[in-house]
Amino acid sequence: MLxxxxxxxxxxxxxxxxxxxxxxxxxGIGAALDDSFYLRLGTEALIFAGLALSVDLLLGYSxxxxxxxxxxxxxxxxxxxxxxxxxxxFWLAMAAxxxxxxxxxxxxxxxxxxxxxxxxxxxxxxMAQVVAKVxxxxxxxxxxxxxxxxxxxxxxxxxxxxxxxxxxxxxxxxLAIIMGLYGLSAYLLETPFGRVLTAxxxxxxxxxxxxxxxxxxxxxxYIFAGLVAGLSGALYPVLRGFVSPELMFFATSGNAVISVIxxxxxxxxGAIYGAVLLVILKSIIGSWTEHHLIVIGLLFMLCVMFLxxxxxxxxRPWIERRIVRAPSQEVGASAVSPAIVKSGSVS
Length: 347
Fold this sequence. Notes:
70% helix; branched-chain amino acid transmembrane transporter activity; transmembrane helix; mainly alpha; 3% strand; globular; ABC transporter involved in vitamin B12 uptake, BtuC; cell membrane; two-stranded parallel ribbon; two-stranded antiparallel ribbon; disordered C terminus; 4 strands
């Protein structure tokens, strides 16, 4: 028997499969036309999609709005860049970035999870601004100019090596990593822990009566979201060959939040769709006018007014209805679903 969260996840998986098919089609077209621009643009969109995914894990499933998720994205990028300039190994850079963000997300979680609501948002914003300012004034990290000259590395897969400078090859690697992070996130949310997160968003005060620790659940999802952002950020210097303090600024976190709202809060795959759409729109509109932010801001307001559930939130119910109508599929209530927590009854 499928519960509501499981049906929603299956619908998201269908949309994820469609995105994967479109991305593979783009890779094929790019390889055939030998066009690197759109492949590089698509790679950048996928990298920022990882950051948006981490925001949706917090906002969409635990109800915590982070305005400083770019902190972990930037830490992952800087640690990756430093590692690549010292030991030019892609996998070592990813491991170092993951470890660094794991440690910093744990520290940040201990600070931020002491408060709730708007205070949580402000503390996450403040932490990101403080670290960004430190990096901005640290000469060893390139200060305001950032770090340049990051080497193009060979990414080893056993006896096979793919150059990070190969647009098609690196696009496929980034696609695999981001979809892997999506798959891991989806798996986590389909476990009992995912139901606890859903219950936290619905009614945090009643969760302890079900035998779960609110603080531990919030810490776990905060650390995991930070890790997702850090691993995504570690890919950025491999793509662009440089990093700058701007990766930690509020604009980066704000774009991630916009991406989640455009795609659909609490849909998971919507964060990826929203980030891809936002990056592409910025590139296309930016080639027409230098006032592209005004146009994007207007589109964002229209989306909030007429599509409050986002693009995926608008289309996913159609897929869910077809999943429910499939033979031998029965939908039941989740053991700790929002409806149960709100009603105060546990069966």
